[in-house]
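quick q for whoever's on today - can somebody do inverse folding on this one?? i tried earlier but teh output was garbage lol. tokens:
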């Protein structure tokens, strides 16, 4: 990474990749990186340096760095979106 990210840039990363976002790794330029292309995982948080802390499906926890590592967001399935929408509408006050 070239230099430090500004607080605004880190906030943007946190908004783009909230906790629970599913990620698929395309490429990681790390000789110690245990994850191969195609490995999937879930964002557990974003630190103040902008690193995505991951819980990979293979049990690893190595973070990924936007701008250095290549990855893509796995879109939520339509079923998951509908379930989440339904949970939100049911969250109102009930009598």
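ok took a stab at it. sequence:
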């Amino acid at each position: 990474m070239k230099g430090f990210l500004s607080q605004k840039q880190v906030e943007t990363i946190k908004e783009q990749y909230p906790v629970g976002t599913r990620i698929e790794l395309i490429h990681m330029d790390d000789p110690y990186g245990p994850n191969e292309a195609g490995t999937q995982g879930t964002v557990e948080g974003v630190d103040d340096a902008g690193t995505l802390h991951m819980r990979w499906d293979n049990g690893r926890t190595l973070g990924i760095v936007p701008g250095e590592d290549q990855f893509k967001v796995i879109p939520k399935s339509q079923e998951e979106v509908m379930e989440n929408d339904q949970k939100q509408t049911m969250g109102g006050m009930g009598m």
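fwiw The mean pLDDT is 84. also The longest strand covers residues 40-46. so keep that in mind when u check it
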